[in-house]
Structure formats: C-alpha cells, structure tokens
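Lecture 7, part B: from sequences to assemblies.

Below are the input chains for today's worked example.
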Amino acid sequence: MSTLTETAAPVATAQGPSLLAVRGVKTYYGNIIALKGVDLDVRQGEIVTMIGANGAGKSTLMMTIFGSPRAREGSISFDGRDITQMPTHEIARLRIAQSPEGRRVFPRMTVYENLQMGASINNFAHFEQDLERMFALFPRLKERISQRGGTLSGGEQQMLAIARALMARPRLLLLDEPSLGLAPLIVRQIFDAIRMLNREEGLTVFLVEQNAYHALKLAHRGYVMVNGVITMQGTGRELLADPQVRAAYLEGGHH
Amino acid sequence: MTIAAQTSLPAARAAESQIPKAAREAGFAALVMLGLSFPILALRTEQNMSNELILTSRWSWALIACIAVFIARFVQILFRSALAKTLTVFGSLVLLGGLARAAGAAFDTFAASVFAIGVALVALGLVWERRAATTPPSTRTAAERFAWFAPAKPYVAPFALGLLAAYPLLALAAVGQGGSIKWIDNFGIQILIYIMLGWGLNIVVGLAGLLDLGYVAFYAVGAYAYALISTQVIPATFPGLGVWAFWICLPISGLLAALWGILLGFPVLRLRGDYLAIVTLAFGEIIRLVLINWVDFSNGYAGISSIPRPSFFGVPFNASDEGFAALFGLEFSPIYRTIFLYYVILCLALLTAFVTVRLRRLPVGRAWEALREDEIACRSLGINTTNTKLTAFALGAMFGGFAGCFFAARQGFISPESFTFLESAQVLAIVVLGGTGSLLGVVIASIALVGGFEILRELDFLKQVFGESFDPTQYRTLLFGLSMVLIMLWKPRGLVSTREPTAFLKESKAVSSSLVKEGHG
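Predicted structure of the full complex, as structure tokens:
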C-alpha cells in the first residue's frame, strides 16, 4: 500500500569528502545533556535521514548544526570550514538552509513576502527565476501567493517553509520533520518534491523524521538516534530491512 | 402589512419571553451597583469650617447610578441591534441627567430640553430596535457593506493630508486670531506630537515587535539635548548662531536619542516580551531619575526655562524690525509662531511616516516585521537579528528625539515632570489601540485620546447638569481606561488591524490579520 513506490537509488551515494561533518558533538540544556557525542556525515548530493522517537535529540542536533544551542564539545564543519562557534545567521549565509521544526512561516506576512525573506540572503540575485521554480515545485503556493502565511493549511505551510528555504539556493537543506501532522497525500507530495530536487539539481538534504518508513525509503543513508546517541547507521534499504528498526519504528507504524 | 407582521411575530415573541429574564438580570446588576456605589457615591465625608469631618449623603447619585446600570443591562440583554442599544442607553442617561437637574436645581427650560433630547434618543433607539428585530440579519460581509466606499478610497489619503495642511488656516477663518491659538496649539500641535511619537514607537513596537515601555526616555533625551545645547553651549561658544539653535539642535537631538536607543538596545538584545518591557520601563525611569537628581547637569525638578523658540529659518518671531511679522509686512501677532510650529511638527510627523512606509518595503523593514513574527526563523534565514533590533531601537528613538526637541522648543520650559511613565503609557496605548503596525490607526487613536481629553475642557455646559463642582477634566483617566477596555473588547487587535502587504505578485487580497494568530518564538 506504500504511498512511495520508488526507493532512491543507493548508487547515488557519493563516496567523496563530507559536506557536513559532525564529530563528537555534545549539547546541553543547562546541566541536562541532550546530545551525548554524535558523529555524522552528509556528503555532496546525498539525502541523509535521521530517525528516532520523540525526545531522542533529533531536533536538538538540527538546531546545534545551526548554532543555537551551541555544541559544548565536539566540532561541526561545513565544506571543510569549522562552523561550531559561528553565529546562526552567518551559518545560514554559508548557504545552509533550514525548514525548521513547526514550520515557522511568518504568519502575518503573505506567501510572497515569506519567499522574499528566504531570498534576502543572496540579495534577490535570482529572485524571479527562483520564484518560478518554487511555483513549478509547489503549484499550490502560486494559488496562495497573496494569502497570509498564518491562513494556509498545515501542508501548504510546510511547502512554504521548504520553498522559503530553497529560495536561498542552499548547498545543504536541513528539514526538520516535514511530515509532522500532515495528511499522507501531502506527505507524499512533499517527499516527491525533495526526491526530485535531489535527482535533478543534486541538492544535498539532511532530513530528520519520525515517519521512519517514508524517510528511509527516500534517503540514501540513514541514522537512528536513541536518547542523544546514534545507535545504528546504514543505507536506507539496510535500515528498512533491519529487524530492530522494524520493531522499534515501523511495526504498527506509519505505512 | 400582514406579511411583515407575520415575519416579525416570532422575533417579537422571543423578545417578549426574554423580558422577565432581562429584568431579573438587570435587577441583579443594579443591586451590584448599589453595593458598589454605597461607599463611593452615597456616602461622602467633607471637611466643614471648623476642620471636622462630617458625613454627607448623596442618595440621589447612587439611585441614578443604579437606574442607569439597570437600563444598560436590560437593554443589553433584550436588544439585538448594537446601534439601538447605544441610542437607548445614551438617551436614558441624558434623560436621567435632565431629571437630576430638575430635581436638584430647578425645572427650567434647560432641564426640559435635556429631558426632551433624552426621550427622543430613547424613542429613536426603540424604533431602530423594532426595525432591526423585524428584518432578517444581514449576511453581507464587511467588504460588501463598505463597497460604496471603495471608489473614494484612493482620495482618502490626499484629502486627509490637504485637511492637515489647511487646518490652521481653517481654524483662523472659523474663530479668528484670538480664538484659533487654542485650537491650533492645544489640538493641532498636541495631537501631532502624539502622532509623531506614536509613529516613532510604532517602528519599535508595531514593526519590530519589541515592547518598549520606556519610550519617553528618548523624548526626554531629545528635549534635554535641545534645552541644554541651546541655553548653554550655543550662547557660550557660537553666540551668533542663536536664532538657528532649533535647526542646529534638531538633528543633534535625533542622533543623541538614537545613540541612547542603541545603548538601551545592547543589554536587551536577548530579551523578549515581558522581560523586555520591564527593562525598558526601568530605563525610562532611570533617565527621569537622573534628570531629577543630577542637578548640576539638568537643574533637577526646577527644569530648564527660557529655552529659545524656533525661528523662521533664521528670522525670529518677535516684534522687532528683523522679526517675522516686520519682514513680511504683517502686524505682529503670536499666531504666526503657533502656525509655524504646527507646520514644523506636521513635517516632522510626515517625515516619520514617510520613512516608515519606505523602510517597510526595504529589506531592513521586512526583516523587522519578520523579527516580530518569528525570531528563530529569521535567524535561520541569515538575518542578523542583533543589527535588526538595534536599527529598530535607534530609528524609533531618533524620531522620539526629534519630537522631544520640538516639544522643548514649543514649551520654552521643560522639567522631568513632562517625562513620566504615564507619557510612555499613553504613547503605547495610542499604538496598541490604533492597531500595532498601522500608521492610520495611530492617527485615529491620537485624535481620539489626545483630542478627546482636550475636548473635555470644552464641556463646561455639563456643569449645568451636574452642578458647579463638576469638572469634566477630572474624568480624564477614567475615560482613558474605559476607552482602552472597550476598544480591547470590541477590537482586540486595535482599530486598524489589517496589515498591508508590502509586495505583491499581481494584486493584494486582504485577509484580515484578526484571522491569523500571533507568531511565536
């Protein structure tokens, strides 16, 4: 019954140097440790996913990559550059874009203005062109262009959050639970769009998901996080077939 | 007739069955009022000639209050149309006023005419309610109901600007030279100062979403900058520039205020909402307390007097041969300076509005609004939130400084008394009541609040109703609070709650922002 019939071709997994390299990262909220030493690589052209239960530290990792909260130990580097201590907005200017947890579109600004905010990072260098690309990717946004962000449905807001991130022409796209609270049909549209961007434009994607089945089907490689530690890693297909993963994240689950 | 009667029957019956319930509820409300009014209105202690406190009673006041509450509650439950409710309740109050006058002073023609007006208003309210009850509720949307207004919309702004520009001349034509000073100064200039302060604060609160309770601090910085430089620095160092003092100090005041805005901005960068409000409140108080206590610098409570008044670009407004009147061959009159001041503050206010409108379309303005909506999303889009906040604080403060400079020049005397927290609260109330972010809302709220208070001074005829000791201006704060409560109940997002988008693909489609929830983060 799967809504996603194809699996991303594992051959696409490039064996080059890491675009994003996370090494031994520990993050604390006050005295409470949230990430207990995470190692992770995302290579150019890959879709990498991280699955895990609520509170496993997935979103914390996403936020730590973006510098808030900051990693107390370990290092994060992007394209060979250490970004561990960089302010968030400067990390974003290295063209790492994020569709954050909870979407966070600007509710009282229109869809058009939201997209403008995404493009402000590169001074509207290719604004018109990118706008057309976004309309092609998510035709719904074109219909809603002068509507306010807060009046969109959940799925449309997610599309807007991704499109806003893509307006920056990112080299790495971070997606935090894009399927959260969305109808299966919308989830499929969004995952299809991500796959297409990866295939046709070589976009590198790091995706954090609870929806393990869809995420592992989409991704070239995956990591499993439990309580702030990465417990397993492998290709999407390997993890999907793994009995432990099946028992913990897939049985009676989302597919 | 028959059809109308039939359709009206169910509604009328429904209303009739409501009467006992409404009477019960209204009776209860009146009892509560009696309990409240007993210690406040009915009993009163007064000092007699030999300094003894004696207890006097004013049972008629308590009775009137209870009757008024009874009517208001009764009508509120029973009536459907808001206009009919307002008319009936207001009419009843007027009617009661007429009765009170007749009972207290004399049944003269004044009491009779007040009474008659009250009866007429109540009758009008009843007729309107009858009409409203027999017509089915309208299904038209607000847009449809105001469709007749749409063609006039493009002309509203030019018309309003024209009216503002012509206002002093209209006042002059209407009440002559002697009478118009009050109207231009107390109404025109006073309201425009608050509009300018409102527009300046709007940049910080309305656009950037940073709740600032200490805005008056920048107003004070601007005012003291002008007062100190023009009375001490300029006469001592450049005595020849005395007539130009205002024009030299205006930009300096703005820059100094902007500097203080940045100084305040740095420590509060990480604060939001309540915490930011408390720190800014404290900042406002610190500035005021420093001005009070650093006597060597600011002359403390005594304030600074004989501050030079603005000149007409180097030509002073005085009776001398080089004065404005002589230069233009006019007879000397203080009115010219008042009119000139009016145009100065009008230009300053319009400058504020112009800058705000332009900046909203530029990346920095969009970043302010995005910051108000969601700070975390902003940062992840590569916006430097530190700089964005500081520019908002600095710009808002700068316009506050300009307004302060103007205020000092207009008054000729300033003291820390003019820069209390109440002043900040009033400007903030103007921004919030007007609808945060809306320039037009600020104008409406300023006219209603500031103009409304000035109007209270004109209501002397009420003394004829309530007795000689009645002073309408004493009710200033009460009305201020009441208007805030009512507007927040009726329009929780302020008078003008739609946010105009700054960019369109094709055309704008307004969706009221009242449908949209606030940003988080």
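Note for the exam: Residues 157-458+491-515 of chain B form one domain. Keep this in mind when comparing with the next example.
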